[in-house]
Specification:
single chain, alpha+beta, Cytochrome p450, six-stranded mixed beta sheet, 14 helices, 11 strands, 9% strand, disordered N terminus, Cytochrome P450, monooxygenase activity, Cyt_P450_sf, iron, Cyt_P450
Amino acid sequence: MPQSPQSPQLHRFPFQVANKFEPPDVLAEMRAADPVVRIVLPFGLEAWLVTRHADVRAVAADPRFSKQAATTAGRSPIPMVSGSKALFWMDPPEHTRVRKIVSAAFTARRIEALRPRVEGLAADLVDRMIAKGPPADLITEVALPLPLAVICELLGVPGDERERFQEWADQMLFTGAAAPGQVEQIRAAREALDEYLGDLIRRKKAAPTPADDMLTMLLRAHDEDARLTEEEMRAFSVVLLVAGYHTTTGSLTHAIYHLLRDPARYRLLHDRPELIPTAVEELLRYSQIGSGIVTMRVATEDVEIGGAEIKAGEAVLLSISSANRDGSVFPDADALDLARADNQHLAFGHGIHFCLGAQLGRLELGAALSALATRLPKARLAVSDSELSWPPGQMIARPVTFPLTW
């Protein structure tokens, strides 16, 4: 029988975990016995949580679940997206129009052209970290500056203005439930970033010689065909900055943690660098970097998913980390297999909202893993797991620091 929306079983979300590098144990229990459950978010909204791989894919591909409806007042899980015009929160036909324009910046050819720059930057960052000597913080030395530099180069942000970008992006990383006043801080950061991007767009528009960057490309689309508004350009830049920067930083930190838990895994990438592409896919599948709040959708009509009757207007979250540990899809799903073939993970989503920057993320992770494994074959975590500090309220979980020694 379908589960009633008034079910007394209401789980507080995000779930508590003993080790923040691992998904909550309760997810495995839910996949087996109760795959679509009622949850309550930190700011009080009740929603459904979908945990099985097949059901997550089904919701992500179903047009009856709206992303845009999740940005309305009182339902938005993240203050920065309330009323957002960002591609990530659009529905067709607006989504179709904007994605067609911005996808030109993420073609396989353009991403491959970035490879020498990204690999060189990763190697330089690791070399500088080594020169400073151990212990060194992987996050501040490599995992944070690599994606931030790449995103800023894509947008054409001048080097002396990138520090402000980082400050705003850090402030916009939280759900708004971490501390009193956090929501106002997030909104202030969003407004400051919007103002900066508007100024940057005006400067690029006035430049005598067009630059070869993403904002200039989007400006041409706006000027030639009037298909992209300045608000949409700014919103896309914000999502690119926050998602591309923090997601990659978190993914790399989690990947190194899982590799170093078993030194033989890490050493394998040093001895067999040809495994790095499959290792990247497996580490993306295996890692737990987000709670799933940004996957929120709202049902536009009554839909049955996984035996649960979801009513029109109810919010739904997709647990990507749970789907990626679904044993019906991934044999020995809780094992980290760096040579795993046919890896159908959902780390980049599914359906029309599949991550535009997936290939760029893969490139950055592969470049960083290669640089680290090649230069630091004896790297290890310099502190115990219990000594790592985790800020509360993060959308993309990563420790404050990740000290390495070698």
